[in-house]
Amino acid sequence: MGSWIRGRTIGRGSTASVSIATDAQSGDVFAAKSAKLSKSEFLQREQRILSSLNCPQIVGYIGHDETTEQGQTLYNLFMEYVPGGTLTELVQKQGGSIKESEIRAHTREILRGLSYLHSRGIAHCDIKGRNVLIGADGAAKIADFGCAKWNYENCDGMAMSGTPAFMAPEVAREEEQGIKADVWAVGCTVIEMITGHPPWPELEDPISAIYKIGFSDEVPKIPSSISEELKDFLGKCLRRDGKERLTVDQLLKHSFLVDSTSKNSPTSVLDQDFWDSFEEEEEMERASSSRDGENSSVSERMRQVSCLRAPIWDCEENG
């Protein structure tokens, strides 16, 4: 990366911040996610994952460097600046629900991005509306790879991460976190597009959500107002046993996604809410803990709410 100019801060976490940045020569605008070099292990890990990806449905990687600013050495991760809002914001701006034609289009795009990730052995681990950005053309892009992991990392002692209301049962129970958990999260995100809020809206705190998701026999309520095809699609995503869930490639062939070729793209909106939410609920958003047998409790997990790394671009749990 050549010389660049840091603009205003548009997001801030406990150890990282996101700024608008401009290439000094070309004038191109991008996003710079920065942390002190001494505390940038999480960001360097995110860079290793993001730099290996090249997919239209995934926010683009631009580069990275180190700078010295105000006497501090910073590690900077450069990413595409998507000129739309989050999927969550889009739904809220449309009154808390979007048309099935739009749900179909965005779900298809999310699944295409996940198909690419899964084919490369990578699980996103935090799919939800606020981690999906809407581009200028109305198309969806998966963002925030701070919790992503390679499948071979699923092993004893590996910390679980993500947003409690979107966690799959096996993640809530700290058993495993892989590509099957992404499928569950897709179902949760579709519910968010239908209702305007995450699943389990009756649960007011993450502890209750994790307990109910992990240790009951319930699944998120499927709205009755939607088409039978969409109900069936959700049923294929929201199976408590991960082995019974369809793969993303199988879901892409589901009748809900293939029966219509029409695509009603939403109007793009400013993305400031995506950046503003970076700080608001960070400490409540990522749940991680080491497995330690009977001594581990749900409340102890939530005391340690964080991802494998502390900062994230977006933090929204209660939708």
TrEMBL record:
Q: Where do the segments described as Disordered lie?
A: 280-303
The residue stretches assigned to a coiled coil in this entry are none
Q: Which GO terms describe its molecular function?
A: ATP binding; protein serine/threonine kinase activity
Protein kinase domain span: 4-257
Q: Which UniProt keywords apply?
A: ATP-binding, Kinase, Nucleotide-binding, Serine/threonine-protein kinase, Transferase
Q: Which Pfam families does this one have?
A: Pkinase (PF00069)
What the record says about family reads: Belongs to the protein kinase superfamily.
Descriptive protein name: Protein kinase domain-containing protein
Checking PANTHER family in the record gives: CCR4-NOT TRANSCRIPTIONAL COMPLEX SUBUNIT CAF120-RELATED (PTHR48011), MITOGEN-ACTIVATED PROTEIN KINASE KINASE KINASE 19 (PTHR48011:SF4)
Task: Give the GO biological process terms.
Answer: signal transduction
Under PROSITE patterns, the record lists: PROTEIN_KINASE_ATP (PS00107), PROTEIN_KINASE_DOM (PS50011), PROTEIN_KINASE_ST (PS00108)
For this protein, the record's SMART domains field holds: S_TKc (SM00220)
Q: Where does ATP bind?
A: K33
